[in-house]
Amino acid sequence: xxxxxxxxxxxxxxxxxxxxxxxxxxxxxxxxxxxxxxxxxxxxxxxxxxxxxxxxxxxxxxxxxxxxxxxxxxxxxxxxxxxxxxxxxxxxxxxxxxxxxxxxxxxxxxxxxxxxxxxxxxxxxxxxxxxxxxxxxxxxxxxxxxxxxxxxxxxxxxxxxxxxxxxxxxxxxxxxxxxxxxxxxxxxxxxxxxxxxxxxxxxxxxxxxxxxxxxxxxxxxxxxxxxxxxxxxxxxxxxxxxxxxxxxxxxxxxxxxxxxxxxxxxxxxxxxxxxxxxxxxxxxxxxxxxxxxxxxxxxxxxxxxxxxxxxxxxxxxxxxxxxxxxxxxxxxxxxxxxxxxxxxxxxxxxxxxxxxxxxxxxxxxxxxxxxxxxxxxxxxxxxxxxxxxxxxxxxxxxxxxxxxxxxxxxxxxxxxxxxxxxxxxxxxxxxxxxxxxxxxxxxxxxxxxxxxxxxxxxxxxxxxxxxxxxxxxxxxxxxxxxxxxxxxxxxxxxxxxxxxxxxxxxxxxxxxxxxxxxxxxxxxxxxxxxxxxxxxxxxxxxxxxxxxxxxxxxxxxxxxxxxxxxxxxxxxxxxxxxxxxxxxxxxxxxxxxxxxxxxxxxxxxxxxxxxxxxxxxxxxxxxxxxxxxxxxxxxxxxxxxxxxxxxxxxxxxxxxxxxxxxxxxxxxxxxxxxxxxxxxxxxxxxxxxxxxxxxxxxxxxxxxxxxxxxxxxxxxxxxxxxxxxxxxxxxxxxxxxxxxxxxxxxxxxxxxxxxxxxxxxxxxxxxxxxxxxxxxxxxxxxxxxxxxxxxxxxxxxxxxxxxxxxxxxxxxxxxxxxxxxxxxxxxxxxxxxxxxxxxx
Length: 840
Known about the structure:
The chain has 47 helices and 2 strands. By secondary structure, the protein is an all-alpha fold. It has a two-stranded antiparallel sheet. The longest helix has 19 residues, at 296-314.
């Protein structure tokens, strides 16, 4: 940017250029996280105490980091640096990088290498739990991102599953780590024998029984340990030790501490199979505690475990009538919690008398000496007996308690087919609460018959779906969820209803569910609705939610015809450009790029710019080939520059691209005349890819520009970038023996009084970093320069370097101006790492 008339650079801006650090207060200084990471990486060798600060920055997943920041941190933590870093901090840094969203730029082969290092940390039981847990979380995040080789994923899955299947005493203490390992195995290795249904009907991961010889020692070690020394943790660990552990827990049922007795009773319910009990039958002890212990918590846990013992381990094979009698008695316990747990347990024990016992509680007037009705219904839910349908329906129609109706619906769903005739009748009701009982039950059923589709559709057609009508919206969503469960057979009726209804609430609900159903069946209808009702609608802004749902669904269709239609919409509808842009990026490159290539010759102006931007977003070898091929045939200089901008940000270059950029950078491209903007983009592209021949190439271009007085008399972006490249590669310049040549060229820029002020100041900054032997004399000579800003810049440089000046400036030779009034912004003159341009 050119300074006009008497405008001068402010004091603060000169300090930014010359010193690389602001004179502005911290409150005034703009913060660039990428630049901060890059600077910290360079300071670690001299200031290792700043390592935790760097790791904290990288652990912030909400902040975007540039290519330069990520690669600098990777070199530091992955062993490619001479800086000595403690192993625990190196591991934390690698874990932060490994799981950061911007680490997608890291080559997958390097990701594979890092994953192996991190797996060693998770498996090292001599390390602290919090470090192992942090690394495990990083591995989980990377696996979830799917930015990983299949072989890397398989190795991570195998190693963590193996680790989980062979626990040790130390891992028994590390309960958080074991839970995290279990969650990983359950999610990514569901077919492992370690994953099994839990007693609540869901699924949880559980290790094979601990093979310890001394449960008492394990119990005492955990209670005296530093990490999670609780009775619950100790008892939980011992409960997985097989018959020896169960025998030890039985001794704790008589402990004088009621917390220990209650936890021991609870722990017996954690044992998952009768095989783990061996010859032990703890039911008689649990019955005794449930009947006579003075502590209500002990009685509650004994009742609960007694129900689990009967249902999940003995399963009526060694039926004990005493269990029923104990639980029956507990239904009248003085403590409400005990009564409620007894009602639930009554359903678990599957005794033939349980049904009548629970139904009798439904048919009597509620009293303070009975369990809550919700607990009673949960007990009936456990029994799944069709005989409970009629009394439950009567209760549902009478009660005003929403939670109770929900539990009744779940019970109808658990009973299954026998309840369907009753539920169909309930759907005919005009009472929304009665309709919701049936609708919620259908939603909860594991399988819903296709025969119910017309009934559901007709009921939805009549639903008003008012925003302030919770009841109607509730059952409407439940029916839609049931249709989703039916799947493909329900798609066509749902689409027909979508096209026929004028109810915007129903439209939004239908679109929401169609968008998450089988995309091959819903894609074309959704596209048609989108283009007819949303894209060309004057009120499209009111349909933002539907638009988002449809576009997200269509992005997963992998349908070239749909991609082509959306691309046409993208080029012709500016008002919703962003959403379409993000949608098109999610299509595979092999589908999207040929569509753009075919349309490209007919595009003009902004359409062409948008198309180029879209090509560049894929960052694949195919997108690079397309960009370079279009560059060869593009006749508009401005569009050639835009193409080079996108080439600059591609993830890797082939040899042809490198040669093309070299020729453009040195102005030897035979195809077309080259502009300075194009040369700049070519240089930046080579810089981002760490091209080894960039130093001599840049010096050659700089020499050419210095000889062209018109090029340096204005604020040339090309010259600025050349100086930035030199600033970032001073070490390489010295290794190549180019320091003398570089100093000579930069000195010429500094001394050229006809050169642009900004360029001269930037050259002074570069010269200070190069440290020529005559630096003091050169800076002192600039104190007499006719340009006020150059004099001030030289003075600041001398002060920063601690060089005593032989001649001081006149006291009133510099009058700073308000930086906010200057046309040069702080961001333009910070001298930040050129890699930060990658945060485009």
